[in-house]
Amino acid sequence: MSSDSQEPLLQVRNLRAVYDSARGPVHALNGVSFTVSPGEVLALVGESGSGKSATALSIMALIQRTSGRVTGGEVRLGGRDLLTLDERGRRAVRGSEIALVFQNPMTTLNPTRTIGAQLREVLRRHLPLDRKAADARALELLEMVEIPDARDRLKSYPHQLSGGLRQRVMIALALSCDPKLVIADEATTALDVTTQAQILRLMRRLTTESGTAMVVITHNMGVVAGLADRVAVMYAGRIVEIGEVRDIFRAPRHPYTAGLLAAIPRMDTERSKDLVTIEGRPPSLLDPKPGCPFVERCWLAMDKCAVQAPEPINPQTHSAACWADPELVRQGPRPLSPELTTTGAKELS
Amino acid sequence: MTSLDKGLTMGVDDREQTAPAPLLEVDDLAIHYRSQSRATRRMGYAVRAVDGVTFSVAPGETLGLVGESGCGKSTIGRAVLKLVKPTAGAVRFDGQDVTQARGRALMELRRGCQAVFQDPYDSLNPRMSVGALIGEPMVVHGLAKGDAVRARVGELLELVGLNADMASRRPAELSGGQRQRVCIARALAVNPRFIVCDEAVSALDVSVQAQILNLLHKLQRELGLSYLFIGHDLSVVRHMSDRVAVMYIGQLVESADVDEIYANPYHPYTMSLLASSPVPDPEVERDRPEAAVRGEPPSPTNIPPGCRFAPRCPFAQDRCRQEAPAYAEVEPRRWVACHFWREAKAASARAVPASAAPEPTA
């Protein structure tokens, strides 16, 4: 779905952000760069605290509503830098050009208003529609997200719907103004497996049909495999690897990606064998050290890695921010050293 | 886990031998909750969280229990631990009736059967040190005093892969993975034979999850533990279990040896669960057929008559909508609750859903 000739829709360049904490600024994003083409689905993956949600909040210019702020970089959507817009300009962009789908639809939907009223409100805020036209469009949207008995559902309150239906309503809200980009932050994480499969299929179909680009934030590699065209792997506030989904899964180039993929139990993993683990834990983001952030957990670490940060990734190709020989990464994870067994005895040494 | 490793389990090789006496037996267990609302209560509505569940776990064996949220799998775990009172049926641990246990017998039960829950942030008292948290169960059960407690805490910390000097820390200073290790050490403090792991790794990041799964395997090998491993991630449950039971709205629909049930599901719900689970492989995911099941599970307050899965089942006939199928052993060690399991089995053998068969990963 991605195409090299197309001008990227979203261009994030060297994005930096910090959160204020009692112990000083937490450097949540340390130079994040990537692009998303029209109609493309990019997955941002990584473990908790790696900067996935901070990236989404920064793009939406919502991070300053938390304890965070953007400290550098650019977020260009269709040529405009969103970070330099005033609040009025940002509000115009949010909803009509970029829309968000969050994990928990129960906290994002207003419990005191019907689904129809909430859809109508969003539609009329952003589009020149009268009440009747907005009603018609709301019905159309619910039908588009495959909600059964859509006409009756317009009169329902959020608590009257199941989790899967609520998430469908959220997707309908997100798509209501034909945005160019949808950011889905763990949008299927709270759902059951059979419901999740249905929602993923729906999201895939809608983006294909409407040409909407999507940034999918998830920690579930199965979801990534099914939904993404390209994948960006985040670690300690950086993108450590980016590439087409098949390349990332078949031939990861960063040791962290390789470790992450190897740590997932699969339907054909030999059960008597221990799973591959990544020992240790991510570095503190309170005072980032020079060098590669993964150095202490990497089985391929060299002296150079501790002092000199690797070249950042090139968002246009399959690339990794790593000094190691790609051939060694391909051979797969090894334990750090013999005394470091898989029990993680040195987790806090 | 091979049968050699675990000694007492029934592996493929020694299936012919007589089975050891089960450590845990759950017999026709039912747990109904009264409805919260007075109006519906008067109409006789109840939430049938668990409705006629039967299974057993042998010493050293892991039984995986899978199903979607709200199906009642955690409630079963709580009944085994005597944290909820069953409406009907029996739970026997080592031959003793759990539901009737009082006083000494209850203490014995608590020593034998421990639990590790999903959220290590909620399960540890933030005001207590790690050492006090792990030592407390020993003191409560009168297993050790003073210096002996301290020494045993150190041993347990090392056993779960933490440094002994972590005893002085508080939960807030630990990562999620370390907290879960402390929860496991605390469960092990009374030398239990059985641990209920209720979504014990679901809140953890992938790399930490792998560490905890390896630890649970190691402890089972070394201490001969039995687990009831409750989870919703089918790959994780497969990795941990010898046998797997699948639950749907308060009832078991199928159980079998792990390789059997994953390669050859007989119940249409097991098939759809397997077909819906995301697989971390783009080739498999892109070729995935249309979602095998439509709709969502009905609420346990409003259970359909007949088979509970019938409204969503591709094999359902009129009989399914009228008559609930019995949960029966249709082949040795294979239990199914379905009128038409033969037809379903034959159809699935023809179709082989994308993720039901183990997929090679490059």
Automatic annotation (TrEMBL), chain A:
GO molecular function: ATP binding
Ranges for domain ABC transporter: 10-261
Main location: membrane
PROSITE patterns cross-referenced by the UniProt entry: ABC_TRANSPORTER_2
Membrane topology: Peripheral membrane protein
Organism superkingdom: Bacteria
Annotated protein name in UniProt: ABC transporter ATP-binding protein
Protein's organism: Streptomyces carpinensis
Taxonomic lineage from the root: Bacteria, Bacillati, Actinomycetota, Actinomycetes, Kitasatosporales
